[in-house]
Structure formats: structure tokens, C-alpha cells
Write the C-alpha cells for this entry.
Amino acid sequence: MAIPAYRDAELVPTVLDALSTAASPESLTFGICWQRADGDDLGPLRSHPRVRVAEFDYREARGLGWARAQAASLYDGSDYVLQLDSHHRFVPGWDRLLISQLALAPSDKPLLSTWGPHYVPGSVPSPVDPVKIVFAGFDDEGKPWFNQRPITDWRSRTEPAPGGFVCGHLIFARAALLEEVPSDPLIYFFGEETSTAVRAFTWGWDIFAPVRQVLWHQWGGAGTRTKHWEDHADPALDRPWWRIEARSRRRVQALLANPTAEMGCGPVRTLADYQAYVGVDFAGGIVTRPIVEEFPVYRAMVTP
């Protein structure tokens, strides 16, 4: 499990909850990029046998892509890789559920991703219908935005629901994903999920949403964590966040315009294939066909 954590008091509760709710906690290994301030404490995770930590002073931190890459570098040879955030709660048996959903996906290279509903630390989160990620549109600057939509027929489904987008709350796949679609350390924040979805798809990974709830996510995080951009706004700094973000957005734009660039698309499918599948032209900032609730399985689209 690869977890980036930036000055987050929910990191320790998240890992402990993952261990306590897992069906097979002895099979889990956590790789954590811990970006800490003075006084931050890992507590019981410091010497935990299932936890590996890459530790950094928060002033060294360079953004989300960099932190995800640091966490992924702690990979231990497991069969699966799970990318998370550092502020989650989990349903009982979540690990067995993910493996089962992955096995049920009608694909040779399935990838599961979903958007976590909100929880409040210290309270018991309520079950909700599982959701999938949908395209919400372009803003005035042409940046793509995404939303969630309940999978209303989840009770009658066994296979995960086909999709076209990913969310950093949860990305689960066979470990080959780490080699083919490594986290891009030069992406600061915005566009990281779009880049990941495009690159995974063009490497032949098919994206699905689990049709059972897996976890909850703490949205906002007021009172439990400080955001990177709150610490790194001073223009006198070597790397103010907005300068890193501007460079990062140019990198994402280059990916979507030039798939042969570094950290670009894979050899199995093209960017045009992806855009036709999801019905979006990123470079043009337009929707090319109506966004429908259900994606077909991609393999069915390209079979004569």
C-alpha cells in the first residue's frame, strides 16, 4: 500500500484502521512517504513490522506526484499494489473485497478505482452506495473536472462497473502497474489523476469501479492536516507551490498533446483511443459525445 502523508494527524489512525479491518492483515505492507513537521509522531507505526517509511522534513516536499513516487519506491514485491491517501476508514474485509472484485473484472489487466465518501474522525461512518467517477466538464481555463455518481444497480451486479477515470483515493491493480505506470514525480497536484488514467489505459489497463463500498475518505481535513500549498506559498522560497504547479500543468498539457513525451502514453492503445472511449477531447476542451452513465467494456468497443 503506497501512502503519501503530508503533516496529517489521520495517517496513524488510517493505517491502524486498515490493519484492524483487513481480512488478512499479515499480508499487508505499507510504504509511506511521511512529510513531517517538528513534533509529528508516527507512534505505533514507527516500529511496526508491516510499515516502511521514507521520512522527509515537510520543507523538502515537492508535491503529490513526488510523494506518491517516494511511497511507491518502498514496494516490497507484493502481488498487488494499492494507492491510497493518508485519511481513510475501511469496511471490514476490504482487502479480500478488492481482490475479489479485481478477479471478477472482464479484463486481462483490470484496474479498480473509486471516490471515497466523507467520514468524520472520531465517528462511525455510514454505509453508502458505491460510486464511480464521471466527467463533470471543463472550467473557464479548459481544465477538466470530475464528479461521482452512485452505481444504482450495485446490489444486482457482481462484476465491477467499467469506467474511464481514476481517483487517488483508491487505485488497486496487479503490481505490474508500478512498472508500467509509475507516479510522475514532476506533477504537483492538478492533472495527476487525468495523467494516470490516460497512461494506464494506453498501457492496456482497463478501468473499473468496485460495486461494493471499500472505504471512506476525509474531505477537507480542517483541524487534522496542513496542506502543502499552505506551507509553500511564500515567493521567496526556492520552490513555491504555485511555481511547481504551473510547471506541472504544462507537463500534463504536453502529455495530452504529445503522447511520446517522457512519462507519456503506453504502446498498447493511443491517446485518441482513450479520448474516443471517454468522449472527451482534452486539447480542444470539448465533449465529443454525450457522457453516458455506463461505459462499455473497452474490449467490446474494438472487437470487429
